[in-house]
Predict the 3D structure of the following.
Amino acid sequence: MHLGGRRRKNLSAGWAWALCATLCAPPAHADEALHSLWELRGKHNTVYVLGSIHTLRASDYPLAPTIMDAYRDSKALVMEIDLNEMESPNVQAEMLQSAALPEGKTLAQIVGPARYARAQSLVRDVGLDLSMFDGYAPWFVAEAVSQLQLAQLGFDAQSGVEMFFMARAHDDGKNVSGLETAHEQLTIFESMPIETQAQYMMSSLEQARDLPKEVNAMVQAWRRGDTVWFQSEIKSDLGKDPALYQSMVAARNRKWISKIEAMLDDDKNYLIIVGTAHLVGPDSVIELLKKDGVRAAQR
């Protein structure tokens, strides 16, 4: 599978899965009154739904006791995608191929000279060089720059909530599964028109300089269980493009409902971990479940 040259190999497949993540929230450092954790009650079991971020700082641990209690009370772990799937060379190759532009195309050609010049300036402001992404699609550039910035701020994909609980589940012999596959997640980005990708990239890069402040604000909002704050952020980030919001958040929420409701018909407890963007607002997993009569309480 051709990846198109040296520059396209600069980004490690080992952390490519992290670049495909949607909006999500950092974990709490200590227990608070509320968390990004919801408890769903089935007839014979409990399903916990936890908001997450894929890259964390070591200082963000330990997680809140309420969150750890939910894990201990659960027999199985469910994530957006099963991270064990990421170990497959075929999946990693598909990720990088999906992110790569067709042979002979460059980022500058795709987004146009004016936007490329602006993007160069924005990326330079955060200490990066846009030329390292010249062989990649605009959506991937947006995600990659955000992840590299987070790394500069001390966040580490290997310390993320999913990785933390996946390691725990492995040691404890708990089953791990996904609500969707890596291929399904990649298709969301691949199906975006180039113009939409370009707008998404520019919007993301324009916000890049404020990322350190925004990340800390997100941590504080997560710790106090501030769903209004997250809903406002989603509206600001994705609300300008209803089609993008539908494909990245709302449509995926609807697809997950039947799978979550099937878990609620089981007799064992589950812990589901997804981005907090999926758990707030009128189109959220929580509201859709409530409309179906599922009892849900924030913890």
About this structure: The first helix runs from residue 65 to 72. Residues 1-32 have pLDDT under 50 and may be disordered.
